[in-house]
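Onboarding guide, step 5: your first structure request.
Type a short instruction followed by the sequence, for example:

Predict the 3D structure of this protein.
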Amino acid sequence: MELLDAILFKSNLKTADIRSENIQEVLLAVKKHSGNNEHSSEYYDNILEKIWLHVITELQEFEDQLLCSTCFYTVLCKTKRQEFHLNNVLEIINHELNLEENDLNGSKTSLAVSLCYGVFQSSYLLQQSINFNATMNSTLEAIFKFLTLKAYEYTQYTFIVFKIMTSFKKVVGTELQNILFNTNNQIKLLNLINHNWENPITGIRNLNRIVFQTLLLVLNHDIYETVLNEINSFYWNKAKYLMLAEIIEQYKGKIECLVSENQWIDGLVYSLAKPGLVSAGADMYSAVLKKTNSGETWIALFLDRVLDVLTGINFKSIENFSNYWCLNTLKKFPTLMPLLVDELNNNNNSDYTLYSTMCIIKQGTKLGISGKKISNCKYELKKEEKLVTFGLEHCNTSVRIVAFEIISISQRNCLPSNIEYTQILKYLSDNVNSDCTVLRISMINNLSIFLNKLHTLYLNTTITNHNEDMQNLITFCVNLQNFVKESISSNGNYQRKLTSVKIAQIVLKNFNHLKPKKRSKETRDTNKSLVGFLKDSGHWKLNAHEFIMKLLDLLKDPANDVHEGVLQLLSEFYIAELSDTFIMNFLIEEGLKCIGSKFFYEISCGQIMFKLVINILLKNNSIESRFNTLEDIFNFAFNEISLEYSSKRDIVKSIEDGKQLHSFLNILCIIFEESIRNHFELTIPKDAIFSLLNIIDYISNQFVWEEDLSTCSDFSKMSDMVQTLINTSGLETDDNNDNTRISDLHQIVLNCLWLNVKASCELASLLIQYYKHDQSVCEKCLHIITHALETSRHKGAIEAAGTALGCGIQCLSSLADEEVVSKLPFCLLKNKLKELLFETTKMSSVTRRGAGLSIMVHRIVSNDLKKGKPLFHYFMRTLLDMCMSIDNASYSADKFEIDNERDLPKAIYIHFLTRIVTDSSLASDTMYYTAELAALAFNNLINNLWQIRNAALQLYGALIPKLIGQKKASGSDEKTIATVACDEFRSHSPKLWGYIIKQIKQNDYKDIIQAHSNLVPILNVLASLAKRYNFSFDLIEQENSDLSLLSNLLSLLGSPIYTVRRLTSQCITNIYSFDKLFNVLENIEILTENYLHGILMLISNCYKYFSHTELIKLDKLSRKYHDVLKQNSQSYMCRWTQDKFCNECENITIELIKNILCEENSKRYEPGVSLWANSKIQKYIKNMPWSVVPDTLSLLLKTHEFVLYCDTFIERIESDTKPFEDFLLESAKILLSSEIIFESSSLWKLLYNISLKIDINVEICNIQGIHKHIKDTSYKLRYLIPFSTRLLVKQRKNEDLLLLSKSIYELCNPENNDVDMRYIATLANNEFGNELSSYSDDVKINAIKSAIILLQDEDEDVRSLCVHFYMNFKKIFKHPYICLNDILKKEFLNEVLNEPKSIQVICNDLLSFVDSIGASKHNEYNPFSNDSKNIYLEKDLLKLTLQKLTKMQS
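The system replies with structure tokens like these:
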């Protein structure tokens, strides 16, 4: 009895004092107590009463409430008053179910949810006595009804509701199964599951799957068959894949029969091309694979379709197959790897096939599959090795990435061979300067994997003096270090510097810190890492003094990620070497020089140097230098700031003297940042901190130049003030009449101002984090940041202040509730909202008051780290309530004042809400308020005040994509797609759906144009929804409302507004089945012109969605309306729409084209005539016989739309593998003899495309004026150059070729030509590669120079195209940097050129070219004006290569 006394005592606490630990103790005690007599029953009754009181009073924490409810049901098992308490539970649940929609004040949702949770989480249902079946029946029914109701709502309870429903599995197989899973409930649960696959709340989809798994266990046979058939009838979407995956998981028969009968393979393969479906498709594929028993079954099911994907031209599909399907497939059936590789090797040799092969080899390599390990296999490992070697130098970036990954991840038990080392080093050398970010990241990651394994193998290899493997390892390590040193020292492009630093970092990381995995008995005992071994043997070169000094020099690189990467490298691995008085003083002196610069990026370099000094001092404070402690640096920076502040000096003079405040403020930022990170306590007087706070408070107000501090200066006043600062400084500039205010000095002053504000806010944020327990400091810092946000308008300043505020709020909100400072974020938000909510009517425009207001509120709300995000919910509730309570009429009296003097409060609040809605990090939390937000947006879209309409439109634009699951596709169909269908939208947003239906059904219009215009946002939502998929059980219930809505939508097809007709046609196809639409369209008789146009758009959409299943019926409709159009003279808009889906079988002649052009000309002023004529002619161009093409071209040359038609002709030529050469030649001659030959860009583009298909034997140079246009090529006639080159290289006229090659060389210069012209130069220059040896040396020199320049072009497309120059000559396809290096080799040049002196000419010309790049006038206020227009070109490396080549030649 003592145990029961203890339980009673623990349950006797006040509800407010109960914590989870107390409930856990009661639970454990109840489970331990096994006695169950009359006396103990009384105890349990008393305990139960106490617990029930706690449950209905509700505990402070919801998790504790759930636990308490579980405890209640656990104790309930022990008492005899079960029916009484179940009735109490039933009463509470029924109260929630019967609650009126508007009577939310009496809601006890959290209590009801906790009671539902407890009954399923405890063991109560498993021990339930049969005596209470009637009560239990009612309670379970009520619980089921309540949970399914709440599961459709987006609230904070949605997740826990689904969590409870996953526990329905407990009653499967018990007496309660028939109660909970009766037929009616099965159908309700099925609909619920189907409407939640796109639920945006995190975790719901997985819980939904578990509920579906449970439902499949209990579905009766008839419903199961219906469900399977109807899922099969859905179009392929996420819901279909996920439900079929679960059905397959529970299927007991032969999987091949199930898959084949239902034709699922096409759908599975389809998912590979769709980024939004690939994951769900992979789940279904995994389910099929799990049930597949043999490789033969897989081959029968998948091989042909998989090969179609792997040999196709959809890169994304191949990548998705590799990432989602391949690994699991090969893991289960290893013999498929050689089979797939052999099949691909027997196919065409396209880049796609090569990439597919590489992907399969990669996944096989991950699994350790090789030809030797697979019995009865003809697979040759050498083929694989050759492919990988070939892939390492391939022009296609993706192929190179995978090839290198194969080498890096290959499974091995011994040290690599010399060949592999060579391949690794060559790959690094060839790709170190690549500007492909994906390749760079992949290369660094895979090199890290390789070096990690290498270190492990080294640690597991016994060292002997004559060990060849060990010697190869040493040689590789030396060569790798040499490569890093040379690459860092070469002053290459940004990509080379960044990648080299990263490589150095991973070399040091992997060779220093790895703990070996003990693999075999041969593992030797050693405490030496590979770095230690190399140091002992004299082969470690990365600690050389000159290398360290070069790294220190790179700290002055203007690129942030380069000097930050160097800082990380030095801080992690070189502190010992840097802990030297000379180096410390060198760093300090260089840092101070940079700090004194005018330019922000040089100041940033100085700050990085100080950061390194601080890191050194934190780890070694015994170095004698100018600054010996962090406090010394703090005092230095603080004194400089104090002197500058107290002198009140002109900001322009501060810039000239190198005393910009932000440069010293950022040093203080670094001190506090590093102190926080290293938990270092600074010895700084509190007075100094408050003095510093006063200074940064002043600095943060540098954009406040007006007396009224509650308003910020607009942009013109900001600009005037900057100019005033310059004028009063007395500084003479080159451009004193800078009316545009974009002079270099003007920009530097403006930069200094906003960077001062930025640094002040960042320092204030760091002071909050450092003094997070000091209320006075935190309050002052918050005031500084928020005031900057309220009074600044500069985008950089307010974004920096917003970020700083976010960091401060995160720090404060993460503190324990007991601390006073943890309440500061809530107080700040409350005060700011109070200012905004109650002062908006008397303040000026919110945009004039401060552009940072919405950022300020958003940062406070979104950075709350407290559980449950109380700041977010307080903000949302406050603003929504205010928006609902505001009456527009109260401030509509003075329209002039409203429009011109101030924003409306409601508009301001809606703008703030929009800011929150657009934050993806708050997406799940925002869904709780979607119904209210949507009502707010829709109700104000037709507001008579433009400010509110504008705000509502922005909220609508932010919210609707979230409601309909709209996301940007990144696959083969580059378009925005929605994933939520109308039933899911309706069931989750019933109020919004009701509002939409009400608006559409409203037909008492006074002004139909205005009424239909107001419907556009609503129709846009319905048109943007995903196409409907639903079970018949639910469709039958919705049938009447659907039919009622259809009649209203059909009437909107006759709207006088085109957009309304277009959106309505999309709405109808989204919501209704084809059978319903066919019956309606078949029986329509009365047709106005607008109505007919709407009907035709509807049929066009039907063709888009249903043509693969309902083509016969669609063609029947097409014929019907084709006859309607023939009988009546309808508009060209109708004819244009009909032509989109009507396939005419008429014989296309030149007369048809003439008739269309004549009709277009005679009816030129009728709406839609140009659309109709253009689409008709384009369709004819695509389908006409080749014999008609020349005459058609001749006719179309005179039209205004010739450019459009040229593009269509080009598409036809590119897609036709075997065009008729005679007709193409005739077409070319017609174009060349045209009067507009020197006026049309498209004409030359078309001619060039014709020349790619056939040999044109035309004396191009006989065309009058051609030489002039070749010599001085305009952008309009750019395609003249590659076309002329193609013709002239075949005619071998040296004089003309020389003229062309010179023109091409001039076009290669990035200083004078944009990327389009350089692309044209590349196309033309590639033509010289075919017969390069056959031209004169003068032509070859120009061609080679052009190729060398273009292979280093800033644009990747130009470089990739230029490799064809090398390929046309050598017949080898390599990537640009390899081609460049090969061309610059003496062997290549000697092979091509006739005269040895020609090499010298090339070198001299290219050296002159390199020197001319970026050689502009020096500008002391704008260093960027001295930059080259080709930042990819490695000038120093190219000069070095050319100089070496010159020496070799001499």
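Each response can be followed by summary notes, for example: The CA atoms of residues 182 and 833 lie 51 Å apart.
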